Amino acid sequence: MEGMALGKDYVTQECSIARALEVVGERWTLLVVRDAIYGVRRYNDFLVHLGIPRAVLSARLRMLTEEGILEKRRYQESPPRDEYVVTERGAALWPVLRALGRWGRDNVDAVRLRTFRHADCGGDIEQGTCAACGTLVPVADVVMVPGPDLDPAPADPVSRALLRPKRLLEPLETDPVHLAH
């Protein structure tokens, strides 16, 4: 195995997968993108939901912003606070994340943590297509619904907010006042 270590980049690879891995190939990066698609937008919400080290989160958010996957937007001036919003380029990663999640469910563990439904007709979405109406469903028309194996009493506020059905890409509300309604 000596001499078999993976290099730090894939510049010698003639492969689109290798080039994509240069941008999203690190595990924290995909989890940040997943959470952003789920509606997480604020630094502290990413931090508590992912359990990611601060320095790693800051670096991943900076890189994802530089790559045009997330857009940094100011939502408060005093003190200055920013949020991270999924761009069109970032939303294009949804089918990849969905396929990876299905693969994990089918080949690693059979738990059903979330289901995804078509907002228009309520049909289940498998591989991007609605099982009920046959429509190829864009990410903004996907409703995420808690699955039967999801922890019903999670410790962090982001996981608690994700216990409610919601459209993907819409901001996740973690404020306890809004969660009570």
Salient structural properties:
8 helices, 7 strands, 38% helix, alpha+beta, two-stranded antiparallel sheet
Question: Hey, roughly how much beta strand do the residues contain?
Answer: 15-25%
- Give the helix level as a range of percent: 25-40%
Q: What distance separates the N and C termini?
A: 57 Å
| Strand-pairing-aware structural class | alpha+beta
- SSE succession: HHHHEEHHEEEEHEH
Detail the poorly predicted runs: 1-6, 177-181
Q: Based on the structure, what is the oligomeric state of the protein chains?
A: single chain
Task: Please give the count of helices.
Answer: 8
Average pLDDT confidence is 89
Overall 3D geometry?
A: globular
Order of adjacent strands in the largest pleated sheet: 3-6-7
Largest beta-sheet details: 3 strands, antiparallel
**Rg, nearest Å:** 17 Å
Give a count of the beta strands, DSSP E runs of length 2 or more.
7
